[in-house]
Amino acid sequence: MKNYFEDEGNYELVKMWRRDFHRHPQSSWSEFYSTGKIAMELEALGYKIYQGEDVIDPERRLFLPDREILDYNYNLAIENGIDERYIIKSKGGLTGVVGVIEGDIPGPTIAYRFDIDALEINEDLSEDRKAVREEYYSKFEGYSHACGHDAHTAIGLLLGKYFSENRKKIKGKIKLIFQPDEEKLSGAEAMVAKGILEDVDFLIGGHIGANLFELGSIAFDVENILAVTRGEVEYYGVATHSTGRPEQGKNAILGACAAITHLNAIARHGKGSTRINVGKILGGTGYNTIPDYCKFYLETRAETKEINRYLQNRAEDIIYGAAKMYDLKFNYKIVTNVEGGENDEYLIEKGIEAVKEVKGIKNIKSKLKMNASEDFVIMANDVKKRGGKSIYVVHGTNVDGGHHSTTFDFDEKVLINATWFYASMYDSLINN
Ligand SMILES: [Zn+2]
Ligand SMILES: [Zn+2]
Fold first, then answer.
1. Sign of CA dihedral 91, 94, 96, 102
2. Cα(403) to centroid(ligand 1), Å
3. CATH architecture of the domain formed by 227-338
4. Which CATH code is given to the segment(s) 1-223+340-431?
5. Fewer CB under 10 Å: which end of the chain, C or N?
6. Which tens digit of pLDDT belongs to each residue from 327-359?
7. pLDDT at 219
8. At what angle do helices 413-430 and 345-355 cross, to 10 degrees?
9. What residue spans define the domains of the chain?
């Protein structure tokens, strides 16, 4: 294993893959370029490939882009060299790939999850940035890999190559899950709904950077993966002429504004951190009509699901109260609900054992607060429900810019550190 991951050729390869994904970023449900590339590479490595409706439940996708945008991105992938054979099943926004390889010796099913989506953010093209100097900056205007999922995808491919070349040591089954749409938090759910984790005994996932900004460090005891709930609130009133018969109107915008002001005034919680945001509001028709409809988008996040439930309960009272104040009807629809999660103790132990073999990792960070949400938790909970175990690891690297910024970049040595760790983790799990 040492020789494999110290090999310059493998480092160059994983770096080349990462830069290729970085040049071709596409966001939630449009990740056709990466889907095609992953499917092609895994097939060449001898994996069985699952795609399209075999791995994605179309009903569970949220914030699906319009057909036009999906088709544009589909064609863009083909124009950039993807063989249509590898994305035909994903047409219409069924992106993502699961690759499976089996050994001759019986054993557990171990799954690794990598997210593949980019963000709808323009990349900074200043001359002094490495991505510009070394020409791997985003070619797709309006999109960039500003969270490091290009790294995750490349790590997944190198790990895939490693297992394929070390097939003799595989006991049982390995599943490499390349998940679309992490950022809008519906990719994991759409895959879980297809039962892809039903036979999984151990699930392993992770993120580069994410509050651990030092190359050569790793965190197993990851806390504070925030629970998150997103919902759409709609108020229905009565439209009238605003000067002719204002007393007969029922103003939906006033109701929404009253609710939003008070939502932001929900008391903090003594047992952990909370977040609340209304990030979008729509309503009204013009100057002289009392608006009879208004809609806004509400998000709550909290350190635990109990605290998140507290936020949601208070939010529901306020939404109801504002409707009452302005004599409106309302509808509150939850569209995303991701609970917080924690790592399995047994896998943390195995992780600590495994990391000893990894040359580039010297520092184990005992506790790390994520302060972010991750729909990996949905997969983890699905595995745990059947008695399986899961772990989410943070791979330290220094970064330029923050996650989700226009200048985000990282030290590519983390690509080897992370892949080596995952390979070593496999050994410590099957040789127990
Ligand atoms: Zn992100
Ligand atoms: Zn991310």
1. negative
2. 6
3. 2-Layer Sandwich (3.30)
4. 3.40.630.10
5. C
6. 999 999 998 888 777 788 999 999 999 999 999
7. 94
8. 120
9. 1-223+340-431, 227-338
